[in-house]
Design brief:
heterodimer, A: 333 residues, Rossmann fold, Alpha-Beta Plaits, 2 domains, 6-stranded mixed beta sheet, 4-stranded antiparallel beta sheet, B: 265 residues, mainly alpha, 12 helices, 0% strand
Chain lengths: 333, 265
């Protein structure tokens, strides 16, 4: 596990220590431990990703950090304010974009955002000015006075982000922001999120079960599994932890696959050899250089490979290594 | 934040959230029309069917049965509408609006007061519609405008009591079906344990006794007195005070239910 370098207190926008949260599971069942000692520290002005499959505890962590839910034990502070001791001050410092659309469909986009602004204490004039500014930025100006129920999924999501940003929060929580969006709307929102930390000096905590999203957006990542952080670092650090490239070989039948496995295990320069049905996965320091040697060795032994591919390690591989199973979240929406 | 800021914030937030609900109501005016079907059935069909009960010896009320049940129908309509109040919260929960609001610095008391104020506005509209229908069918009330105003006040207080209860149940059970079941179970018997449909003297003694503790009966009695043109202040004042007191208590209890909701999310 990689650790953050030591930072001074002011630079830490979000600090969670040993958070534990259990939910009753019903009669006669053990309580569900949604958070099991989760700890994260997030540097001010950065985008931090919490990556994990559904049920890993990401959303529970967001609920605790946004004061919706109280932890059973552990401590957390957001923008230097303790979430259990001063929840009302935390609520002024944060914006929340939850998993599902959270605007009122029977109100217009503008009414939704202005209401959020007024609740955050903006004057009527400031509320309208900031709303117009955000609508302009998110390309919602034309739809501003339409009822939200007429919005597309992508527009509704942008409206949620605008609501979250209305009071220029120090920390913005994005809980699976692109779930259910079509690829175009998703790319669009990605571009907006990437601009956030830079333009608004907002710290962003992003939860996602999309590996590519975490890889693309987050400066630092924590992989969450069963309520705790199992790995943390920059996406590149996590990937380079696996060292080298991944080599995937596929064979036509199980006998050649088994023979190849025995052969590969004796070859120098290859590591992390894992059989997977008719395929074999291995790691090499420099995949491109290892392949010719590997193919020559297979050829000498009279084993024909159906395909050989070399890939940079993905976060999927990182997840496989730390959580001990493949990352199913990548294949579901 | 100082203590002096808090009441101001509470009032402002209540205002913003009430406006939100009223706007939604203006965009769905047929919603109020639908809620008027039931009182129209009560007034016209029930009123016709039981027209002759006023001739039973001992039925103290002067005037027609339609005039007699108008206050009863107004309070029943308020009661049943208020029972649905919590569905607004359930919709907000399902739409994610509730969690977003709870993670914002909105006052919980304001979230409660706004829904109660909104329900009272709905009640006033419904009650005026019931008065209009009754008037069109020939009912006349000696109490005039002040009688109508007192009736609206009593109906609003009754609405607050049961809307707060409905909101509290919504926050505790968080499911539409369960909320409707519980609120119908609680509110359906209450009009029959009151003088809403029949003069108290004609109901069994135990019903008369129970009615003394029934907020629906308090509201019906207040309204009927006020509409009679010669109200007995000794009868009206304590019942109005009891309704107001109960409204405040229920509003406070229901606001506490936000805590229970947050413990469950």
């Amino acid at each position: 596990m990689l650790h953050l370098s030591t930072r001074t207190q002011v630079d830490v926008a979000l600090d969670a220590r040993d958070l534990v949260k259990t939910y009753p599971a019903g009669r006669g069942k053990d309580p569900v431990r949604a958070l099991d000692g989760l700890s994260i520290q997030v540097a001010a002005g950065s985008v931090f990703g919490l990556l994990g499959p559904n049920g890993a505890g990401k959303s529970t962590a967001v609920k605790v950090l946004t004061t919706l839910s109280r932890p059973d034990s552990g401590r957390a502070s957001v923008a230097g304010i303790d979430v259990t001791l001063a929840p009302d001050r935390v609520r002024r410092a944060i914006g929340l974009v939850s998993q599902r659309p959270s605007s009122d469909p029977m109100a217009t986009g503008r009414e939704n955002v202005v209401l959020a602004a007024r609740i955050q204490g903006l004057s009527r004039r400031d509320a309208h000015r900031r709303t117009a500014e955000l609508f302009d930025r998110f390309g919602l100006t034309e739809a501003a006075d339409r009822l939200v129920r007429t919005y597309s999924g992508g527009m509704a999501r942008k409206l949620d982000v605008a609501i979250g940003l209305i009071h220029r929060p120090q920390v913005l929580f994005l809980d699976e922001p692109t779930t259910g969006l079509d690829p175009e709307a998703r790319a669009d929102l990605w571009a907006e999120i990437a601009r956030l930390a830079a333009d608004e000096q907002t710290t962003v905590l992003l939860t996602t079960h999309y590996l590519d999203e975490a890889d693309h957006l987050a400066h630092r990542l924590a992989i969450v599994d069963r309520g705790r952080v199992v790995a943390e670092g920059t996406p590149d650090e996590l990937k380079s932890e696996l060292r080298g490239d991944t080599v995937h070989l596929e064979f036509d039948n199980s006998e050649t696959a088994a023979a190849a496995l025995r052969l590969l295990e004796r070859l120098p320069g290859l590591g992390g050899i894992v059989p997977d049905g008719l395929a074999v996965h291995a790691r090499a320091d420099l995949g491109a250089r290892a392949v010719p040697t590997l193919l020559a060795a297979l050829d000498n032994a009279g084993i024909a490979a159906a395909s050989v591919t070399v890939a940079r390690p993905s976060l999927d591989d990182v997840y496989l290594r730390h959580a001990g199973r493949r990352f199913e979240g990548n294949h579901q929406s | 934040m100082t203590a002096a800021v808090l009441p101001g914030r509470f009032v402002r937030h209540s205002g913003y959230l009430t406006v939100r609900s009223v706007r939604a109501l203006i965009r769905q005016p047929w919603y109020v029309a639908v809620t008027l079907v039931q009182p129209i059935v009560w007034l016209l069909l029930f009123g016709q069917l039981f027209k002759s009960v006023v001739h039973i010896p001992g039925f103290a009320a002067s005037g027609s049965y339609l005039e007699f049940i108008t206050p009863g129908v107004i309070m029943m309509t308020s009661l049943f509408s208020a029972g649905w109040a919590g569905t607004v919260y359930i919709e907000d929960m399902n739409r994610g609006v509730m969690d977003r609001l709870l993670a914002s610095p909105v006052s919980r008391g304001a979230m409660m007061v706004a829904t109660l104020a909104y329900q009272s506005i709905v009640t006033v509209i419904q009650s005026l519609a019931v008065f209009a229908i009754a008037y069109a069918c020939g009912a006349r009330f000696g109490g005039g405008v002040s009688g109508v105003v007192v009736t609206l006040v009593a109906a609003s207080l009754l609405t607050v009591v049961f809307a707060a209860l409905s909101n509290a149940v919504a926050l505790l059970v968080r499911q539409q079906d369960a909320l409707i079941g519980i609120s119908q179970f609680l509110s359906l018997p209450l009009p029959f344990l009151s003088s809403a449909l029949i003069a108290a003297v004609l109901s069994p003694p135990w019903v008369r006794h129970v009615a003394n503790y029934n907020p629906v009966d308090w509201a019906v009695v207040v309204s009927r007195q006020a509409l009679s043109g010669a109200p007995d202040v000794g009868v009206v004042a304590p019942r109005l005070a009891a309704l107001a007191g109960l409204a405040v208590v229920m509003g406070w209890v229901a606001t506490r239910a936000f805590g229970a909701y947050q413990r469950s999310v």
